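the two lines:
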Amino acid sequence: MLETRNLDKSFGAVHVTRNVSLKLERGERRVILGPNGAGKTTLFNQLVGELTPDNGSVHLAGEDVTALPVAKRARRGLSRSYQKNTLFDGLTVEENLGLAAAVHTGNATQLWSDSLAKPDVREIVEEVAEQVNLMPFIHAKVSEISYGVRRQLEVGVALATRPLVLLMDEPTSGVGPEMSKGFHDLLNNLPRDLTMLIIEHDMDLAFDVADTITVLNYGEVVFDGLPEEARGSSLLKEIYLGSWEDA
Amino acid sequence: MFRHNALRCTVLVLLAAAALFQALTAGYFGLEILTEILILAILVLALDIAAGFGGMVSLCHGALMGVGAYAYAILSAKAGLAPPVAMAAAIVLTGSAAWIIGAICSRSHGIYFIMATLAFGQMAYSYVFEAPVFGGDDGLGGISRLDLSFIGVDLNDSRSFALFCLATLGAVYGASVLILRSGLGRSLAGVMHNEQRMRALGLTVWRVKADVFGLSGLIAGLAGALAAQHIMYISPGLLSWTVSGEALVVVILGGLGTLVGPLVGAAAFVLLKHELSALTPHWHLVVGVILIAVVMSRANGIFGWIEARWDGRAERRAVKAARKQKTKEVLSDA
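prediction for all of em together
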C-alpha cells in the first residue's frame, strides 16, 4: 500500500534519512521507533510531500507519488496527524472534522451550499466522532476541550479524509497514562483494512498496536521486524533503550 | 466561520433604518453623502471577505473598483451596450481579473501578498492613466445610469439612486453571508486558521484563495459600476493605491472580519471626512490619529470594541446568574 525505495535526505552536512526502504501491506500497522533526532518526523514529511527527498521514491497503492505535492498525495489517500496539534482553534470539533470530510467528498469548494449540511459530510463527521470518542465534545470549540481530547481530534481530522494510509506522529505525545491507554483502544478499534504508520515513544502502545516495528537511528533503518523480535533485540536495546538508560 | 449574534443583528437593523430614513428624508447633499457611504460600504465588504476572512490583505481593491467603473463606462458610453448588459459585463470582467490576480498572488503571504496586489493595482492605474482610449488624465464623462423606468423608477433622481444603492448593498451583504457560510467559505476559514493543515487534508489552497478573491473582485466591480453611475464621470484617480489604502483603513476602523464592522467604518469614515474637511484641510491627520488610537487600543475596530464589551457583559451576567443559582441550591439544601 505504501512503499519507499532508497529514500535519502540531507540538510547540508547532516544526513537525516539514509537509504530508507519500507514496504507496508494493506491493513498493516507499523510503528517507527527511534531516539530523538533519528529522523522519524523528517521521514514522515517526505512521505506526505512536505519535504522533497534528495534521492529515492515514494509509492502509494502502486503509484509513484514522489513528484506530487502535499494536497494531491492527500487526495490519493495519504493522511497524517502531527506531533503538535494543528487544529482549527476557533472552530468546533464538528467543524474541524467537517473541513476534512468536505475535502474528501468534494464539497470544500461548493459555493451554493454549506458543506457541513451535506449528508455525506455529516455521515463521515458522525462516524469519525464515534471512532475517536469525540461525540460528547462535538459542539465544543477546540479552545474549550482538554489537551488529551485535542490529540484525539488531531487523529480524527486525519481520519475524516477517509485515508488509505494514516500516518500518525506521536499521537499520545503529552497525554497522561490513563488517556494513553484509551488511545490503545482507539487505535485498535480503527478499521482493520486501514494501513497505519505510527511514530511513537510510548513502548506499551507501540507493542500493543504494532504488527511490525521499524527502528530508525541516525536516519537509517537498523531494525525491521515483528514486535516479539524487537523485544528481544539486543541492537534495539543498545540503540533505543540504551539511550533511555544514558538519560 | 461567520456567525450572526444579537449585537450584529441589532447594529445591522439600526444601520439599515438610519440609511433608509436618510434616503427618504435627506436633501440633495445628504443623499450624495449617503450614496457615497453605500458605495464605499460595498467596496469594503468585498475587501473584508478577502482580508478579514481569508487573510488576503489587498492593496488593489481600489484598482478593481476602477476596472469595474471604466469597464461600465466604456461598454455603455463608447461601445453602446445597454447599461444593464454593460454593468453585468463590467462585474464579470472585474471578477475575472481579480481571480487571475488572486491565483498569482495567493502563492505568497503577508507583506509579499500586499506588495504583489499593490503592483497589480499600480499597473492598472498606470495603464489607464496613459492609454488614450480611457481618456488619460481627463477621464471619461457622459456615463448614464441604469434605466429602471419600466418599473417606474428614475435612477437619475438622487433619492431613487440612493435607495437603489441601499438595496444593492443589502443584496451584497446577503450574498457575502452566503459565501462565508458555504463550503468555500468554510474552507477559507480553515485556510485562514491553518493553511498547512488544509493542504495536508488535500485542499488546493491557491484555488480556494483565487475563487474567494475573484468573488471579492465581482463585488468590487459592482461598487465601481455604481461609482461610475453616481458621479457620471470617472478619472484614473479611482484606481490609485490611495483608494485601496482608504478602503483598508475603513475596514480596520470598522472591524476586520466582522462584515458589520466595515459598514460602520464606511459610515464613520465618510461622515468624518465631510465634517472634518469643512473645518480643516488637514482632516486626514485627524483620521490618522483616530486610526492609530483604534489600532493601539488592540480592539478590532469600532465594532470590535463594542462587541468585546458586549461579550464581556454577557459573560459577567452568565457568571452572576450561575453564582445566584448555586447560592439558591446551597440555601435550599440547608
